[in-house]
Write a structure and sequence with these properties.
Elements lengths: L3 H11 L6 E4 H5 L16 E6 L9 H7 L11 H10 L6 E3 L4 H5 L2 H19 L54
Parallel strand pairs: 1-2, 2-3
């Protein structure tokens, strides 16, 4: 498939509840399909969200994707706008980091995991505006829609922060499963 707009047309036309999308921010944003191109995609049909940032480069997309993906906040993509639009559509699944980067592959795994967590905390901060009084699902102020609040106490070297209600803290707010994804 060419992109998420093409994939969505197929999913919508099929109309089957077991068919949905796995959105990858890099695949969309590297092709210039930013926020605004996700309009009309139903949140319950988004089954998974992969996030990666990248410096804007004039490279073949395949090489760019395999070697230069970064954590959120470490590139030039509008990940905040992209993620906000996906969440506003109603998606409440995990946020998965799909980062293919030669430097990260050679780095210490624990330091990379801490860097990943910090990038998700930064993204989380940019998603919740200072004047936002409403608790989002999984918010540190208390979960809504039956899901528990995210437990930030076990996140390595990180302060407690509100969450977007997705897998941000290393705890899946739907199941309580732990681990940085």
């Amino acid at each position: 498939m060419r992109d998420h707009t093409h994939a969505w047309r197929i999913v919508a036309a099929a109309g089957h509840p077991a068919l949905g999308l796995c959105l990858d921010s890099f695949h969309s944003l590297s092709r210039g399909l930013g926020p605004g191109t996700l309009a009309g995609i139903q949140g319950e049909r988004i089954f998974f969200l992969q996030l990666a940032d990248a410096l804007v480069m004039a490279l073949d997309v395949l090489q760019w994707s395999r070697h230069f993906r970064n954590f959120p906040g470490q590139g030039g993509f509008d990940l905040t706008g992209y993620t906000r639009e996906v969440l506003d559509a109603g998606y409440r699944g995990p946020l998965s980091l799909e980062v293919s980067n030669d430097v990260f592959r050679q780095a210490d795994a624990e330091r990379t995991a801490v860097d990943a967590m910090r990038s998700l905390l930064l993204l989380d901060e940019t998603l919740i505006t200072p004047d936002d009084d409403t608790a989002r699902p999984g918010d540190a102020r208390g979960g809504t829609d039956g899901r528990p609040a995210t437990d930030w106490s076990r996140a390595p070297n990180c302060e407690s922060r509100p969450s977007t209600g997705t897998l941000v803290s290393g705890a899946d707010v739907r199941t309580g499963a732990r681990g940085i994804v």
